[in-house]
Specification:
Layout (H helix, E strand, L loop, with lengths): L9 E8 L6 H14 L3 E8 L6 H11 L3 E6 L5 H11 L4 E4 L11 H9 L4 E5 L7 H19 L11 E4 H4 L12 H7 L4 E5 L15 H19 L3 H30 L7 H34 L6 E5 L5
Helix pairs in contact: 5-8
Length: about 325
């Protein structure tokens, strides 16, 4: 029996929520109906990520009406990764399903994901083969992001951006989330030896509210991919990474110095009269220093959180969980 006395094969549904008060009643009814239909032992955990609408009141009401529904209310908007982590930390099920709360994911797909887990997969990712989003604002960034992620990670999943995913408890509990890394949970699971699979899922057009994503997502994914690539290849051997950079700088410096010698002895030019060379050198140095500073800061942030057990979110209260 897992921690907390929950029976085996219990399903935990984790839903980060940010300003989705209109969607929640419809979504909750659909989720509960599907879970009851398949006779799952279940819990549904809503994490209100500092919503400014009435989402917290709706979650409290849902928890009061159904003992299987729980609410966690964060003190402010910490972001989707932190909200997801808050739900995972409180999930007691053997299988943890994470999905969006905007009605675009279909609860009827939950049994398909659970079935894949029961067949031996550690992580099952939804594939929104027929997306119902704006082609430019949502689909284009997702298309670009998925191809970049597949190229960097080597994980052959069509739609890593799909929030509807199922995880075996022991796999997801070992993954620590920071920043906006929730979209890479499947990759982290693969890094520790987890078997990752995918299933086609239904995708609905947004009915209420507005999307929280846009074209700026590509830029964020690019920055996250730099960190991901570093963690995949050099997390346990950083000297290889910095050694390669040092070698590149040495080669570049040697070539630059050779060019200066040629310029001096064959064209009788002065070393100090070419501001372009100095400007180029400064730009490259600043660029690489900025990148390295970002990577070092990422590592230091992880050490800070994990060694001191510092939380990445703070809970204001709960509903139906028996915990504060």
């Amino acid at each position: 029996m897992p921690d907390g006395g929950i029976a085996m094969d219990t399903i935990s549904i984790v839903l980060p929520v940010y300003n989705e008060e209109e969607s929640l009643p419809v979504l909750n009814e659909s989720i509960v109906r599907v879970l009851k239909k398949h006779n799952y032992h279940y819990e549904v955990i809503y994490i209100d990520d500092g919503s400014s609408d009435g989402s917290a009141k709706v979650i409290t009401s849902l928890a009061e009406k159904n003992k299987h529904v729980k609410g966690v209310f964060l003190r402010r908007n910490f972001g989707q990764s932190a909200a997801t982590a808050a739900g995972i930390d409180r999930a007691l099920g053997d299988i943890i399903v994470i999905m969006d709360s905007d009605l675009q994911n279909d609860p009827n797909d939950i049994p398909k994901l659970i079935g894949k887990i029961q067949d031996g997969a550690d992580v099952v990712s939804g594939w929104r083969k027929q997306r119902k989003d704006n082609a430019i604002v949502r689909n284009l960034p997702s298309w670009v992001a998925n191809r970049l992620i597949k190229k960097v990670s080597g994980l052959k999943i069509h739609d890593l951006g799909c929030s509807l995913k199922a995880y075996r408890r022991d796999v997801i509990k070992s993954v620590r989330l920071y920043g906006e890394m929730h979209r890479f949970i499947a990759i982290y699971a693969s890094m520790i030896g987890g078997r990752v699979d995918e299933v086609e899922v239904t995708h609905h057009a947004r009915k209420y509210g507005v999307s929280k994503y846009g074209l700026n997502r590509i830029f964020k994914v690019l920055l996250d991919l730099i960190t991901l690539k570093y963690l995949l290849d050099y997390a346990t051997k950083p000297i290889y990474f910095f050694g390669k950079l040092a070698t590149a700088f040495f080669v570049l410096g040697t070539c630059s110095f050779a060019g200066l010698l040629v310029h001096k002895f064959y064209f009788d030019a002065s070393f100090v009269r070419s501001p372009l060379l100095l400007l180029t050198a400064i730009i490259f140095v600043i660029g690489f220093q900025t990148l390295l500073t970002g990577l070092l800061a990422e590592i230091l942030m992880r050490i800070y959180h994990e060694s001191q057990e510092k939380p990445i979110y703070y809970v204001r209260g709960t509903a139906g969980t028996g915990k504060k």
